[in-house]
Design a protein that fits this description.
Blueprint: H1 2-22, H2 29-42, H3 44-51, H4 57-66, H5 71-91, H6 97-112
Helix pairs in contact: 1-2, 2-3, 2-4, 5-6
């Protein structure tokens, strides 16, 4: 019973990752990491295909094997979150932009301290 549910979640997160390729504000690799997690438990061949992808495979394997995030990805994530704070402040304003600030304050240092 778990296998179809894991497959459905894998497809959902794969879809979000594919949308993230086209939308610059939506991350791609984190969704693919979650998709690979679910595929590994439902359809290991699909997980292997993600890990062997020529563009995203190295980042996925680095995370799977060492919990590592590349330096360029770290910069991109933190800059993206910072831009998100500014965008939220300009478009939505207070107090809602504080949610973006909290995300940056909590996850920014965590991302930065991951191995490279």
């Amino acid at each position: 019973m778990k296998r179809p549910i894991f497959l459905a979640f894998g497809l959902l997160f794969l879809g979000l990752g594919l949308i993230g390729i086209a939308l610059p504000i939506l991350p791609t690799v984190p969704f693919l990491i979650v998709a690979a997690f679910f595929f590994a438990r439902s359809n290991p061949e699909w997980a292997d295909r993600l890990y062997q992808h020529p563009v995203y495979g190295p980042s996925l394997r680095d995370w799977r094997d060492r919990g590592a995030i590349g330096r360029r990805a770290k910069f991109a994530a933190i800059i993206g979150m910072s831009v998100g704070v500014i965008f939220t402040f300009v478009t939505v304003g207070a107090p809602f932009f504080l949610i973006s600030v909290a995300v940056l304050v909590i996850f920014g240092p965590w991302i930065w301290t991951r191995p490279e």
